[in-house]
Amino acid sequence: MEIIPWRPFGELSSLRKEMDSLWDKFFGGKTFAGSFAEEWAPLVDISETEDRLLVKVELPGLEAKDVNVSISGDLLTIRGEKKKEKEEKDEHHHCVERYTGTFQRVLRLPVDVEPDKVDASFKMGVLKITLPKVEKAKKKSIEIKVK
Predict the structure, then answer these.
(1) Residue 91 to residues 33, 95, 98: CA-CA distances in angstroms?
(2) Which of 45, 54, 76, 137 is the Cys-Cys partner for 111 at CB 3.0 to 4.6 Å?
């Protein structure tokens, strides 16, 4: 007989996933992929250096004109729309999994940034937003004096 370690939080985690799934199905969560989904949210990476924040957003199939970026206080808002392609008259779909429709991501920034110096660029389906930190948000080294 094999001894298997008991992982109480592992059991709670699987129960939570099942409850979330049930809740989403009952109240119309994002459980159906593709054309059945009412809304979708692009994936985001946020990183930080000494003097800036960097936000990368995956937006495959979109162009810069389809996306709007705004900042208000400590909230960065990214919104846009991925339009459905025209269907051919005699086209029969076997599988439709790509998301279409409007999206919006609102991200709370972890540090203060210079809103007038924010830069956004779009290349190969990735939106890259560079947010310079304000001077007070930059890390400062403090010298320790020996007495």
Answers:
(1) 20, 12, 16
(2) 137
Supply the range of the domain harboring residue 25: 8-32
Per-residue pLDDT of 14-30, as tens digits, reads 777 788 777 777 765 54
- pLDDT higher than threshold 50 for residue 32: no
Beta strands in 1-147 (DSSP E): 44-48, 52-58, 67-72, 75-82, 101-108, 119-123, 126-132
Mean pLDDT of the region 52-81: 93
Q: How many domains, the chain?
A: 2
How far is CA 46 from its chain centroid? 9
Instruction: At 70, list the tokens.
Output: 């705004």
- pTM: predicted TM-score of the whole model, two decimal places: 0.65
CA 107 to chain centre: 8
- Check whether residue 24 and residue 51 sit in a common domain: no
